[in-house]
Design brief:
Structural class: alpha/beta
Helix content: 25-40%
Order of helices and strands: HHHEHEHEEHEEEEEHEEHHEEHHEH
Distance between the termini: 20 Å
Strand order of the largest sheet: 1-9-8-5-4-2-3
Number of strands: 14
Length: 369
């Protein structure tokens, strides 16, 4: 809108500006150290992030996609094994499953949480099924109690996709501590974001932790000796140092996200827009604030005219993407997923949003009704 500053839907630069001195000091510390790969910064970050999540082990890797791929391999899954997950996720979820040599199988989502519907999982289990990958989408935790119950009954591994769930809570435990392992992404727009790519595997299983450590660096149990085939997927020292800075601010930043969400919820109440659900016994990380609206495209155009940026996460479900169309088992039974994708819209959500910007979004929503 002419004369009005556009409020972006995400703005990772804003946090970098707020924390610039701390970040530059951390980078200088790495540069001065002369050690740039798998050094003290990575080691310290791994300990600090494991403590934050409430897990025994954290292994830093090059990306969230690698984290999920390596966690699946480290958990003992073999080429051709099936993994039940959702089509409602970033493509990275299925890309990681296939990079591990595994076969994705799609379960539909629950309409309220927008996460995997545990009631639909068992019907998809076959003799080849070896794991479940629940995705804590947008920062909303899945029903991990039900999922773990199914996994225990059928002897399945559970690898949580926590790429959007840094600090999300179920009961008194953080997302990422329920399954056999969890994968986190530190892409710059995440609640805990690097200034580049990065990821981590969280696990309480020391065997899985050791396997990830070896797999991330060519299968080396001792330097330059590959005990088995691995990859090159290492979190570098500079990104680890930056993440250590940002981790110290994560709880406060997440609380600000929830404050913004509360303001949006109040503005949306009574309108034709559906807010994210408030699910008992869970604390949403509010990585994204995603509404539903039958007139989504009109709403998006209206908000842009009001100077408010939006996004669609995601334009297509994974099973609708050209690369996966019709070739994944379960892709014909996803009515809830397909309904959701007709109306989702992400509103501006990042901790550095000023109160005045939040009020502008709320006023625009109130006028829409």
């Amino acid at each position: 809108m002419q004369g009005k500053e556009i409020i972006p839907v995400v703005n990772p630069k804003a946090q970098s500006e707020v924390l610039q001195k701390e970040i530059l000091d951390a980078v200088a510390r790495v540069v001065d150290s002369g050690w740039y790969i798998l050094g003290s910064e990575v080691d310290s970050f791994e300990k600090e992030f494991a403590s934050f999540i409430g897990a025994d082990n954290c292994i830093g890797v090059a990306s969230g996609t690698d984290a999920l791929m390596l966690a699946l391999k480290a958990a003992g899954l073999k080429t051709g094994d099936e993994v039940i997950t959702v089509s409602h996720s970033a493509v990275a979820t299925v890309a990681a499953i296939e990079q591990a040599g595994l076969v994705p199988v799609f379960a539909d989502i629950d309409n309220t949480s927008r996460c995997i519907d545990p009631g639909l999982i068992e019907a998809l289990i076959s003799p080849k099924t070896m794991a479940i990958v629940p995705v804590h989408i947008y920062g909303q935790p899945c029903d991990m109690s039900a999922i773990m119950g199914i996994a225990e009954r059928h002897g399945l591994k559970v690898i949580e996709d926590c790429a959007q769930a840094h600090g999300a809570i179920i009961g008194d435990k953080k997302a990422g501590t329920f399954g056999h392992a969890a994968a986190f992404s530190f892409y710059p727009t995440k609640n805990l974001g690097a200034l580049g790519d990065g990821g981590a595997v969280i696990t309480n299983d020391c065997g899985i932790a050791d396997n990830v450590k070896w797999l991330r660096e060519y299968g080396w149990k001792e330097r330059y000796v590959s005990s088995f085939s691995g990859v090159n997927s290492r979190l570098d020292e500079i990104q680890a140092a930056i993440l250590r800075v940002k981790l110290g601010h994560l709880e406060k930043a997440n609380e600000r996200r929830r404050q913004i969400a509360s303001s949006y919820n109040s503005a949306i109440s009574g309108s034709s827009i559906k807010a994210p659900a408030d699910i008992q016994n869970t604390t949403h990380a509010m990585h994204l604030y995603v509404v539903e609206c039958e007139e989504r495209d009109k709403l998006r155009e209206y908000l842009m005219n009001e100077g408010i940026g939006t996004a669609i996460h995601y334009p297509l479900a994974i099973h609708q993407q050209p690369a996966y169309l019709g070739r994944v088992r379960g892709c014909t039974g996803l009515a809830n997923t397909e309904r959701l994708y007709k109306g989702i819209l992400s509103l501006p959500m990042y901790p550095e949003l000023a109160d005045a910007q939040v009020e502008r979004v709320c006023e625009a929503i109130n006028k829409w009704r």
